[in-house]
Amino acid sequence: IKNNYETNIAYYDDKLLKRTLEERRVISEFEGAIEKKEFKMFLQPQVNTHGKAYGAEALVRWQHPERGLLSPFFFIDILETTGLIYKLDMYMWECAAAKLSEWKKKGDTVHYISVNISTKDFYLIDVYEVITSIVKKYDIEPKMLKLEITETALMSDLKKNMEVIKSLRDYGFKIEIDDFGSGYSSLNMLKDISADVLKIDMAFLRATENEVKGQDILETIISLGGKLGMEVITEGVETDKQLIMLTEMGCHIFQGYYFSKPIPVEEFEQKYMNE
Ligand code: C2E
Ligand code: CA
Ligand code: CA
Ligand code: CA
């Protein structure tokens, strides 16, 4: 027994060590990677039933020289806990604004880009100041840059965040509530915040598989969003069955692998912008 116990400890120690080394590596390589532009903006289209794109969500990928293309899973959490996330987010907001400005010059003022704002950003930087400066610098309309904020950032006790978001909305930005329904204060929050788009968490769609209750909840959220004057987007659509169900429930904007995974910008432009 004693031996077994020791082996187990060794095993957990080993895992922990690996995790720590992994974290250290991300932290030590991060600044250099930003400078060398190893972070890439991928775009995932937000489409109507027929697959026509209204716009896209910007999702980061790390083109690592040794490890290949890394998904956010490998680094976002680490950047959030260490407080480095704001540097990545500012970089991504700027990538999106630069792209929008390029599109605008080509005559496209139809497509928007939604960017992610981490809850942590609100504590680390002056989000209002940074984002308004970026749209001025690139001379784009604020409504083309949509701001995705998860509901944890919007919880009603966070008065200060609410005020920042309200100022951004007054300035002309569209606010999207991301991962709606995944937190515990969702409904309460809706009462206090004014937002433009409700993005339903993927978990709700998963919960409808052969489940009447799950379907009822999803349908109710969609109509609630509508009643509150918000656009409703469902994320994680993977099958035509889901698409049909959602359309019948009154949702008209979708994001999911059924239409497209997040893809490099050039590919998005080829596939979605010359229609
Ligand atoms: P999120 O903001 O909820 O983004 C949606 C995630 O769902 C993306 O994962 C997307 O690829 C994935 N997804 C979309 N459609 C489907 C589908 O049909 N099926 C499945 N299984 N998944 C789907 P991704 O790109 O790996 O990003 C994961 C998370 O990392 C994002 O979740 C977001 O929280 C974070 N993230 C990504 N880019 C950024 C960024 O630039 N800044 C910040 N702060 N967070 C980011
Ligand atoms: Ca998002
Ligand atoms: Ca989401
Ligand atoms: Ca999420």
From TrEMBL:
Source species, domain of life: Bacteria
GO molecular function, one term: cyclic-guanylate-specific phosphodiesterase activity
Entry protein name: EAL domain-containing protein
Alphabetically ordered keywords of this record: Membrane, Transmembrane, Transmembrane helix
Domain EAL: 23-275
Organism name: Lachnospira eligens (strain ATCC 27750 / DSM 3376 / VPI C15-48 / C15-B4) (Eubacterium eligens)
